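FAQ

Q: What does a record look like?
A: Structure on top, sequence underneath. For example:
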């Protein structure tokens, strides 16, 4: 099986970038305990600092799918919907999924 990488990219108002970074620095970490989970990174675009990408790396696609279908996944994403800042609450990510084909 090949590693599987998921990117969720959001663009937030520039003045709220630090706030969003702080949220991810204090994330729940519930994904960390999932079988097949390898790593989490929050990436900031060098040229467009308002563009942030969550990168999750998994041992394989099946491990990711198990997480994506779980109650833990739903709980984490429900938190986003209840965020007090309406502007940030309305941000929708662009999700891209990648199969690692060479290392």
């Amino acid at each position: 099986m090949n590693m599987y990488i998921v990117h969720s990219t959001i663009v937030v108002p520039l003045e709220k970038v630090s706030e969003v970074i702080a949220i991810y620095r204090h994330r729940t970490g519930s994904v960390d305990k999932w079988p097949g989970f390898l790593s989490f990174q929050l990436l900031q675009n060098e040229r467009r600092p308002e563009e942030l990408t969550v990168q999750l790396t998994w041992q394989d696609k099946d491990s990711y799918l198990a997480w994506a279908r779980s109650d833990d996944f739903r709980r984490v994403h429900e938190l986003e919907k209840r965020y007090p800042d309406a502007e940030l609450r309305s941000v929708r990510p662009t999700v891209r999924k990648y199969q690692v084909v060479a290392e």
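Q: Is there anything notable about this one?
A: Residues 71-81 form the longest helix (11 residues).
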